[in-house]
Design brief:
Elements: H1 7-21, E1 43-44, E2 52-55, E3 61-65, E4 76-91, E5 95-108, E6 115-126, E7 131-143, E8 149-162, E9 170-175
Parallel strand pairs: 2-9
Antiparallel strand pairs: 1-4, 3-4, 4-5, 5-8, 6-7, 6-9
Amino acid sequence: MSAYVSRPIVFAAALTLLAGCNTQKTLETTDNKSAAAAPTDTMPVVEGTCPQIFLRDGTSSYRTYAKGGKDDPAKVIYQASLAETSRSCTMNASAMNITVVAQGRLVTGPVGSAGNLVMPIRVAVTDGQTTLYSELVKFEAAIPAGGSSAQFVFRKDNVSIPGGAGKLAKIYIGFDEAPYNTK
């Protein structure tokens, strides 16, 4: 077999590749101008400016127990854990808005069965000294009938912090058994 490829085939392949890279969608505004000409209120933020996200030690897992079985492994109903995290940021004139996402797993324990579990997940943003944002969310996930485990995706939109705080801020996510009425 020859390794020789004709120039027209290489040229056609290159044109096809470039055409795929240059596809562009335009949105119409009320005055029929392209979206590029329309002003925008928010701008995407480069990942390096978007605060990093961390799981705090001791907050990446959560267990529920049968009555009277606190800390007894034989009486675990459900165990949940958080593993992978991600975030995306947009910025307007005064604030950075963050969407926080975490992937988790829910498993039944020795006395558990398929069903729903409401988990307390806290999202907090600090700049090292000050808490810029903190919210405890009641998040529900389910293990389907006949199953003993399931994966879930937690998503918290509209986490808003002051615009200049991104470089120093850190996002923390984890299970928190504190009362829900705290911020």
